[in-house]
Model the fold of this input.
Amino acid sequence: SKKLLVDVDCGVDDAQAIMLALAAPNVELLGITCVHGNTRVENVCKNTLRVLKTCNKLEIPVFKGADRSILGNIRDAGLFHGVDGLGDAPDPSAPSLDLLQKEGAVSAIIRIVNENPGEVSLVATAPLTNLALAVRIDPTLPSKLRGLYIMGGNTESRGNTTVCGEFNFVADPEAAYIVLNDYQCPTYLACWEFTCHHKLPWEFCDAWLGQDTDKARFMAKIFHYSMEASKTERLQKELVAGEGFVSCDSYAMAAAIDDSFIIESEQQPVSVELAGTHTRGMMVVDTVGLLNKAHKAFIIRNVDMEKFKEMMMAALR
Ligand code: BDR
Ligand code: CA
Done:
Protein backbone atom coordinates (compact mmCIF):
# COMPACT_ATOMS: atom_id res chain seq x y z
CA SER A 1 0.00 0.00 0.00
CA LYS A 2 1.02 3.65 -0.50
CA LYS A 3 1.76 5.84 2.47
CA LEU A 4 0.40 9.36 2.12
CA LEU A 5 0.80 12.44 4.27
CA VAL A 6 -1.48 15.31 3.30
CA ASP A 7 -1.11 19.04 3.99
CA VAL A 8 -4.36 20.97 3.54
CA ASP A 9 -6.17 24.30 4.02
CA CYS A 10 -9.40 22.35 4.08
CA GLY A 11 -11.73 24.13 1.74
CA VAL A 12 -14.20 22.34 -0.48
CA ASP A 13 -11.74 20.85 -2.97
CA ASP A 14 -9.33 19.86 -0.18
CA ALA A 15 -12.24 17.98 1.41
CA GLN A 16 -12.83 16.24 -1.91
CA ALA A 17 -9.13 15.35 -2.16
CA ILE A 18 -9.08 13.94 1.37
CA MET A 19 -12.13 11.82 0.58
CA LEU A 20 -10.38 10.47 -2.52
CA ALA A 21 -7.51 9.28 -0.34
CA LEU A 22 -9.85 7.77 2.27
CA ALA A 23 -11.66 5.77 -0.41
CA ALA A 24 -8.53 4.49 -2.16
CA PRO A 25 -8.00 0.81 -1.25
CA ASN A 26 -4.23 1.02 -1.79
CA VAL A 27 -3.65 4.05 0.45
CA GLU A 28 -2.55 4.31 4.06
CA LEU A 29 -3.20 7.88 5.18
CA LEU A 30 -0.60 8.54 7.87
CA GLY A 31 -1.91 11.92 8.90
CA ILE A 32 -3.30 15.27 7.83
CA THR A 33 -1.48 18.50 8.59
CA CYS A 34 -3.35 21.80 8.52
CA VAL A 35 -2.21 25.25 7.44
CA HIS A 36 -3.72 28.71 6.88
CA GLY A 37 -5.15 29.38 3.44
CA ASN A 38 -8.76 29.18 2.36
CA THR A 39 -9.75 30.09 5.90
CA ARG A 40 -8.15 30.51 9.37
CA VAL A 41 -6.13 27.50 10.44
CA GLU A 42 -8.58 26.75 13.31
CA ASN A 43 -11.37 26.40 10.73
CA VAL A 44 -9.07 24.26 8.58
CA CYS A 45 -8.57 21.89 11.53
CA LYS A 46 -12.29 21.78 12.27
CA ASN A 47 -13.17 21.18 8.60
CA THR A 48 -10.64 18.36 8.36
CA LEU A 49 -12.17 16.69 11.43
CA ARG A 50 -15.65 17.10 9.90
CA VAL A 51 -14.50 15.29 6.76
CA LEU A 52 -12.94 12.47 8.79
CA LYS A 53 -16.08 12.14 10.90
CA THR A 54 -18.26 11.89 7.79
CA CYS A 55 -16.03 9.06 6.55
CA ASN A 56 -15.79 7.32 9.96
CA LYS A 57 -12.03 7.87 9.98
CA LEU A 58 -11.51 10.04 13.05
CA GLU A 59 -8.62 7.78 14.07
CA ILE A 60 -6.43 9.47 11.44
CA PRO A 61 -4.27 12.03 13.28
CA VAL A 62 -4.77 15.72 12.46
CA PHE A 63 -2.09 18.30 13.25
CA LYS A 64 -2.37 22.08 13.40
CA GLY A 65 0.29 24.05 11.54
CA ALA A 66 1.23 27.58 10.54
CA ASP A 67 -1.46 30.22 11.01
CA ARG A 68 0.03 32.66 8.48
CA SER A 69 2.67 32.94 5.76
CA ILE A 70 6.42 33.05 6.38
CA LEU A 71 6.24 36.86 6.18
CA GLY A 72 3.15 36.93 8.41
CA ASN A 73 0.37 37.57 5.93
CA ILE A 74 -3.08 36.01 5.82
CA ARG A 75 -5.39 35.70 2.85
CA ASP A 76 -8.57 33.76 2.51
CA ALA A 77 -10.73 32.39 -0.25
CA GLY A 78 -14.07 33.02 1.43
CA LEU A 79 -15.69 34.19 -1.78
CA PHE A 80 -15.26 30.73 -3.20
CA HIS A 81 -15.28 28.38 -0.20
CA GLY A 82 -17.43 30.38 2.23
CA VAL A 83 -16.01 32.19 5.28
CA ASP A 84 -15.71 28.92 7.25
CA GLY A 85 -14.02 27.20 4.28
CA LEU A 86 -16.76 24.62 3.80
CA GLY A 87 -19.55 26.58 2.20
CA ASP A 88 -20.87 28.13 5.43
CA ALA A 89 -23.08 25.12 6.04
CA PRO A 90 -22.12 24.38 9.65
CA ASP A 91 -22.60 21.08 11.43
CA PRO A 92 -23.80 21.61 15.03
CA SER A 93 -22.33 18.24 16.01
CA ALA A 94 -18.93 18.88 14.41
CA PRO A 95 -16.08 17.17 16.26
CA SER A 96 -14.29 19.28 18.87
CA LEU A 97 -10.80 20.66 18.32
CA ASP A 98 -9.80 18.65 21.41
CA LEU A 99 -9.35 15.77 18.95
CA LEU A 100 -6.33 17.49 17.40
CA GLN A 101 -2.92 16.02 18.13
CA LYS A 102 -0.80 17.90 20.65
CA GLU A 103 2.17 17.71 18.31
CA GLY A 104 2.41 20.52 15.74
CA ALA A 105 2.20 19.99 11.98
CA VAL A 106 5.81 20.80 11.11
CA SER A 107 7.19 18.46 13.75
CA ALA A 108 4.73 15.76 12.65
CA ILE A 109 5.82 16.02 9.00
CA ILE A 110 9.47 15.64 9.99
CA ARG A 111 8.78 12.75 12.36
CA ILE A 112 6.47 10.77 10.08
CA VAL A 113 8.77 11.04 7.06
CA ASN A 114 11.80 10.03 9.15
CA GLU A 115 9.91 7.04 10.57
CA ASN A 116 9.16 5.85 7.00
CA PRO A 117 12.22 6.80 4.95
CA GLY A 118 11.69 6.50 1.20
CA GLU A 119 8.06 5.51 1.60
CA VAL A 120 5.96 8.63 2.11
CA SER A 121 4.29 10.61 -0.66
CA LEU A 122 3.56 14.12 0.54
CA VAL A 123 0.49 15.76 -0.98
CA ALA A 124 0.24 19.53 -0.51
CA THR A 125 -3.04 21.20 -1.47
CA ALA A 126 -2.50 24.50 0.32
CA PRO A 127 -0.03 27.36 0.85
CA LEU A 128 3.35 25.69 1.38
CA THR A 129 4.27 27.28 4.73
CA ASN A 130 4.42 24.02 6.74
CA LEU A 131 6.58 22.32 4.10
CA ALA A 132 8.98 25.26 3.88
CA LEU A 133 9.41 25.38 7.66
CA ALA A 134 9.91 21.60 7.79
CA VAL A 135 12.78 21.59 5.27
CA ARG A 136 14.53 24.39 7.15
CA ILE A 137 14.47 22.33 10.32
CA ASP A 138 15.31 19.03 8.60
CA PRO A 139 17.15 19.54 5.27
CA THR A 140 17.32 15.75 4.77
CA LEU A 141 13.53 15.56 4.54
CA PRO A 142 13.14 15.78 0.72
CA SER A 143 15.67 12.99 0.15
CA LYS A 144 13.51 10.72 2.32
CA LEU A 145 10.28 11.33 0.40
CA ARG A 146 8.94 8.97 -2.23
CA GLY A 147 7.36 11.90 -4.01
CA LEU A 148 5.87 15.35 -3.58
CA TYR A 149 2.51 16.23 -5.16
CA ILE A 150 1.50 19.88 -5.15
CA MET A 151 -1.62 21.67 -6.26
CA GLY A 152 -0.40 25.18 -6.96
CA GLY A 153 1.30 27.58 -9.30
CA ASN A 154 0.47 28.37 -12.88
CA THR A 155 1.96 27.94 -16.32
CA GLU A 156 0.16 30.47 -18.53
CA SER A 157 0.46 33.42 -16.12
CA ARG A 158 -3.29 33.30 -15.57
CA GLY A 159 -4.22 33.98 -11.99
CA ASN A 160 -7.18 33.25 -9.77
CA THR A 161 -6.09 35.45 -6.88
CA THR A 162 -3.95 38.12 -8.49
CA VAL A 163 -3.71 38.87 -12.21
CA CYS A 164 -0.90 36.34 -12.63
CA GLY A 165 -0.99 34.38 -9.41
CA GLU A 166 -2.60 31.15 -8.22
CA PHE A 167 -3.97 31.16 -4.65
CA ASN A 168 -1.67 28.65 -2.91
CA PHE A 169 1.52 30.26 -4.24
CA VAL A 170 0.30 33.84 -3.79
CA ALA A 171 -0.75 33.12 -0.20
CA ASP A 172 2.90 32.35 0.65
CA PRO A 173 5.31 33.08 -2.22
CA GLU A 174 8.41 32.64 -0.05
CA ALA A 175 7.26 29.21 1.06
CA ALA A 176 6.53 28.18 -2.54
CA TYR A 177 9.99 29.41 -3.54
CA ILE A 178 11.66 27.42 -0.77
CA VAL A 179 9.74 24.24 -1.58
CA LEU A 180 10.37 24.39 -5.34
CA ASN A 181 14.06 24.98 -4.72
CA ASP A 182 14.81 22.77 -1.74
CA TYR A 183 12.60 19.70 -2.27
CA GLN A 184 14.83 17.90 -4.74
CA CYS A 185 12.66 14.81 -4.87
CA PRO A 186 10.28 13.65 -7.60
CA THR A 187 7.86 16.60 -7.67
CA TYR A 188 4.52 16.65 -9.51
CA LEU A 189 2.64 19.90 -10.05
CA ALA A 190 -1.08 20.19 -10.70
CA CYS A 191 -1.09 23.84 -11.76
CA TRP A 192 -4.11 26.14 -11.98
CA GLU A 193 -4.61 26.25 -15.75
CA PHE A 194 -4.19 22.49 -16.07
CA THR A 195 -6.96 21.93 -13.53
CA CYS A 196 -9.19 24.43 -15.36
CA HIS A 197 -8.66 22.58 -18.61
CA HIS A 198 -9.88 19.36 -16.94
CA LYS A 199 -13.23 20.33 -15.47
CA LEU A 200 -15.83 17.95 -14.14
CA PRO A 201 -18.98 18.64 -16.18
CA TRP A 202 -21.99 19.80 -14.17
CA GLU A 203 -23.95 16.69 -15.27
CA PHE A 204 -21.23 14.57 -13.68
CA CYS A 205 -21.47 16.63 -10.48
CA ASP A 206 -25.24 16.03 -10.32
CA ALA A 207 -24.78 12.25 -10.59
CA TRP A 208 -21.87 12.39 -8.17
CA LEU A 209 -23.81 14.29 -5.49
CA GLY A 210 -26.98 12.32 -6.15
CA GLN A 211 -25.59 9.09 -4.67
CA ASP A 212 -27.69 7.90 -1.74
CA THR A 213 -24.99 8.03 0.96
CA ASP A 214 -24.13 10.21 3.97
CA LYS A 215 -20.87 11.16 2.23
CA ALA A 216 -22.76 12.44 -0.82
CA ARG A 217 -25.22 14.36 1.37
CA PHE A 218 -22.31 15.94 3.27
CA MET A 219 -20.63 16.90 0.00
CA ALA A 220 -23.82 18.34 -1.47
CA LYS A 221 -24.22 20.49 1.65
CA ILE A 222 -20.68 21.94 1.69
CA PHE A 223 -20.42 22.11 -2.11
CA HIS A 224 -23.51 24.24 -2.76
CA TYR A 225 -21.78 27.57 -2.16
CA SER A 226 -18.76 27.05 -4.42
CA MET A 227 -20.88 25.38 -7.09
CA GLU A 228 -23.01 28.54 -7.25
CA ALA A 229 -19.90 30.75 -7.08
CA SER A 230 -18.35 28.82 -9.99
CA LYS A 231 -21.26 29.83 -12.18
CA THR A 232 -20.85 33.59 -11.64
CA GLU A 233 -19.52 35.71 -14.45
CA ARG A 234 -16.27 36.71 -12.78
CA LEU A 235 -15.37 33.15 -11.85
CA GLN A 236 -16.32 31.86 -15.27
CA LYS A 237 -13.70 34.23 -16.68
CA GLU A 238 -11.14 33.14 -14.13
CA LEU A 239 -11.82 29.49 -14.80
CA VAL A 240 -10.17 29.82 -18.20
CA ALA A 241 -12.70 27.99 -20.41
CA GLY A 242 -15.67 25.69 -20.45
CA GLU A 243 -18.44 24.54 -18.19
CA GLY A 244 -18.01 22.49 -15.08
CA PHE A 245 -16.37 22.32 -11.68
CA VAL A 246 -12.64 22.47 -11.02
CA SER A 247 -11.75 20.29 -8.04
CA CYS A 248 -8.16 21.60 -8.08
CA ASP A 249 -6.74 19.68 -5.14
CA SER A 250 -8.18 16.36 -6.24
CA TYR A 251 -5.83 16.17 -9.25
CA ALA A 252 -2.71 16.30 -7.07
CA MET A 253 -4.26 13.66 -4.82
CA ALA A 254 -5.28 11.38 -7.69
CA ALA A 255 -1.73 11.55 -9.07
CA ALA A 256 -0.34 10.49 -5.68
CA ILE A 257 -2.84 7.64 -5.36
CA ASP A 258 -2.46 6.14 -8.83
CA ASP A 259 0.78 6.23 -10.85
CA SER A 260 -1.11 5.69 -14.08
CA PHE A 261 -3.35 8.74 -13.59
CA ILE A 262 -0.88 11.13 -15.26
CA ILE A 263 -0.91 10.58 -19.02
CA GLU A 264 1.39 13.41 -19.97
CA SER A 265 3.75 15.69 -18.08
CA GLU A 266 6.52 18.10 -18.93
CA GLN A 267 9.74 18.11 -16.91
CA GLN A 268 11.06 21.62 -16.32
CA PRO A 269 12.95 23.62 -13.70
CA VAL A 270 10.48 25.87 -11.88
CA SER A 271 10.68 28.78 -9.48
CA VAL A 272 8.49 31.54 -8.07
CA GLU A 273 8.48 35.30 -8.63
CA LEU A 274 9.03 37.08 -5.31
CA ALA A 275 8.87 40.70 -6.45
CA GLY A 276 6.79 42.21 -9.25
CA THR A 277 3.80 44.52 -9.07
CA HIS A 278 1.46 42.04 -10.73
CA THR A 279 3.55 38.90 -10.69
CA ARG A 280 4.51 38.22 -7.06
CA GLY A 281 3.69 34.58 -6.36
CA MET A 282 3.52 33.62 -10.02
CA MET A 283 5.25 30.38 -10.97
CA VAL A 284 8.17 30.70 -13.36
CA VAL A 285 8.92 27.88 -15.80
CA ASP A 286 12.55 27.96 -16.96
CA THR A 287 12.17 26.38 -20.40
CA VAL A 288 15.59 27.64 -21.56
CA GLY A 289 17.57 26.55 -18.51
CA LEU A 290 18.79 30.01 -17.51
CA LEU A 291 18.29 29.31 -13.82
CA ASN A 292 20.91 26.55 -13.96
CA LYS A 293 18.80 24.30 -11.80
CA ALA A 294 19.50 20.60 -11.94
CA HIS A 295 16.16 19.70 -10.39
CA LYS A 296 13.13 19.59 -12.64
CA ALA A 297 9.52 19.21 -11.61
CA PHE A 298 6.91 17.23 -13.52
CA ILE A 299 4.29 19.71 -14.68
CA ILE A 300 1.13 17.68 -15.22
CA ARG A 301 -0.41 18.31 -18.65
CA ASN A 302 -2.89 15.52 -19.24
CA VAL A 303 -4.60 12.94 -17.04
CA ASP A 304 -7.00 10.02 -17.31
CA MET A 305 -10.35 11.77 -16.76
CA GLU A 306 -12.34 8.51 -16.82
CA LYS A 307 -10.18 7.20 -14.01
CA PHE A 308 -10.64 10.52 -12.21
CA LYS A 309 -14.43 10.33 -12.42
CA GLU A 310 -14.37 6.75 -11.14
CA MET A 311 -12.22 7.75 -8.18
CA MET A 312 -14.46 10.72 -7.42
CA MET A 313 -17.60 8.55 -7.57
CA ALA A 314 -16.01 5.98 -5.25
CA ALA A 315 -15.09 8.72 -2.78
CA LEU A 316 -18.78 9.38 -2.02
CA ARG A 317 -19.94 5.79 -2.20
C1 BDR B 1 -6.20 26.37 -4.66
O1 BDR B 1 -6.64 27.43 -3.83
C2 BDR B 1 -7.58 26.97 -2.91
O2 BDR B 1 -8.66 27.87 -2.83
C3 BDR B 1 -8.02 25.62 -3.36
O3 BDR B 1 -8.34 24.81 -2.24
C4 BDR B 1 -6.83 25.10 -4.11
O4 BDR B 1 -5.92 24.47 -3.24
C5 BDR B 1 -6.57 26.68 -6.08
O5 BDR B 1 -5.89 27.82 -6.54
CA1 CA C 1 -6.58 23.84 -1.03
Q: What stands out?
A: The chain has a mean pLDDT of 96. The longest strand covers residues 27-34.
